[in-house]
Amino acid sequence: MFVTELRFECFADTSIEAAEKAINNFLEALRANGQVLGREFAVAFNDGEFRVRLLIPERSSLANRYNSPWVKVALNGLTEAKILAPREKFIGQDINSEASNTHQPSWQLLYTSYVHMCSPLRNGDNLLPIPLYQIPATFNGDHKRMIKWQSEWQACDELQMAAATKAEFAALDEISNTDSDLFRRGWDLRGRIEYLTKIPTYYYLYRVGGESLNAELSRPCPKCGSLEWKLAEPLLDMFQFRCEPCRIVSNLSWDHQ
Ligand SMILES: [Zn+2]
Questions:
Q1: pTM of the full predicted structure?
Q2: Which residues surround ligand 1, an ion (CB under 5 A)?
Q3: Topology (CATH level 3) of domain 2-93
């Protein structure tokens, strides 16, 4: 991933309030399309211009060809607020984050965790994140629903990893149970992506707990009950289970590895 800076210059008298509103709307539109990562943007105003530093999946993430309908409308909104089209100044590679995928995947999966800022869509061959703007819009012109699903999944993951509140159990249930709301929504998004990309796309189901290693190794698929989902070797050193008809991958319980 990369760091870039956008500068917004006013071309006529405008109110700070109107400018801020237009800029924030533009940044939200980019975020909903996967063109920028993270959720908080520090926009600084100094010497007549606004500046913001952004984390982007690829050097070209802000290229016009990736813009969603909302991003295009938001760009017009900048003009209405009397701001020139943003100028980009590339800063460099982010030292703390992963590279984005550049290879055609033979399969894909929805996988995230509370420490990952990158796209939740991963290449199944190498686990590298696939920038969302590279696939057709999942719903209503962009990937808002995916980003929302991802932030809720991450919030649940953080609560259960912290293991410090009663919310831990409800949160764990959301990410590890096929009856949960997060599963239902994420699994539907997975199906949508598979349909749009024509690439087999799986949903990652988190697994922790369980009585013993043996019990965990003979754990059936929680959706269809099949034992055939267990693999001889874990894929990507992580996914011991993959159910083809249910389109689910899962790990051997983290308590028994
Ligand atoms: Zn199954």
A1: 0.94
A2: 221, 223-224, 226, 243, 246
A3: Alpha-Beta Plaits (3.30.70)
